[in-house]
Amino acid sequence: MNNSISMTGVYANGNDNKKFRGDRPSCSPSRVLHLRKIPNDVTEAEVVSLGLPFGKVTNLLMLKGKNQAFLEMASEEAAVTMVNYYTPVTPHLRSQPVYIQYSNHRELKTDNLPNQAAINAAQSGSLALSGGPTNEGTIIPGQSPVLRIIIENLFYPVTLEVLHQIFSKFGTVLKIITFTKNNQFQALLQFADPVIAHYARMALDGQNIYNACCTLRIDFSKLTSLNVKYNNDKSRDFTRLDLPTGDGQPSLEPALAAAFGAPGIISSPYAGAAGFGPALGFPQATGLSVPAVPGALGPLAITSSAVTGRMAIPGAGGIPGNSVLLVTNLNPDLITPHGLFILFGVYGDVHRVKIMFNKKENALVQMADANQAQLAMNHLSGQRLYGKVLRATLSKHQAVQLPREGQEDQGLTKDFSNSPLHRFKKPGSKNFQNIFPPSATLHLSNIPPSVTVDDLKNLFTEAGCSVKAFKFFQKDRKMALIQLGSVEEAIQALIELHNHDLGENHHLRVSFSKSTI
Q1: Rounded to a whole number, what is the distance in angstroms from the first to the last CA of the chain?
Q2: What is the pTM assigned to this prediction?
């Protein structure tokens, strides 16, 4: 670019170059920012998009041969905010880290810059970026920078840090609030700019965070700004690192903590790869692949290390990342190892169950991995079963021991590791997509043609249930929904009737439904 500029001193005196050795800003604040390690193929608009969230960009000088640029903000305050934000959280362009520091220059004296059009276009919201989607909706004037995110099929915990990692690929994430509503994990996420929110929604809506589960449903919020009071596992304001955590109390109720992977999958929102907790073997997050949009950095495959880590629950005495659950307050007259195997098997593959010999209202349930243990605990702790409120926490035991030969056990310890009834042995199984909290409505499948509505109603009535409604699926009569008198009835019916022999070599499959009749 042949821009007529009075910038000959930038490289002649070498001052700016000397400061490249450290990634932190080392000179006094200036509204001109020096960007280095910029990819060769980056556009002016992409560079401008780094500054937009913090205020108006007034000038830009690209030095592509040196992989550098100078970005001038309208005010020194905007530049300071930008540097403060990007110092701990390295921005990326085209998947490459970019380093930002203050320049020695107080302003860019340039005239008739051809790239002024790029600045204007970016700031008016018509960011024309190569590879960006152009035909999927347009940006509405006054559109909110706040997105409402619902995570469907929450098979693995999704934390605030994971959301930050995914969405910050598009631009600056200012604030996130997470919560549970209608039995669904949801979040409100505020970008600094509605344009970025628009592109993030277009690219991510309907995508899976992990293979075949944790589906993102994204819309614009009616809120235009989020008010975050505490920085903890449920909410964070990335522009205010001074906020309290909230009276030093655990930020999540234990029942919800499992859904969020408390106390955070990534040890710090700003940690690089070295800051991630130890891997626990999440499936690699290959679900997300996004097109090139403003600040979107190629395929959005979250690294295994980024989505795994310590998932201890505040106040629970168990071992973080343990796959064994301690289940208490059971009805000792009615509960069996097989019953616990069937119930906990809705949320993961149960390997072993041990009902305590001397205290039969307590049991240990060993799941296939720590993530499934978290999921089962989240969904089942607090549910009523055989007249008592079941409690589940992480156990201090790492595994369920089988009784030694000759040791009296009364059949209270069972190994189910080779059971044919495991729901999740096949990678990518459809069962991953159909995991829902316990509900009064059950989903039935594998029904043979000869079995009628009355046959099924009678089956559930004989099991002690009151049937409120029933309907076959219109397109597939092998499946049906049945609504019972309560959630407790449905849990007990699932335990007793899952895998029930309906004849004609058909065994009934029962799971909780997200729908009602």
Answers
A1: 65
A2: 0.46
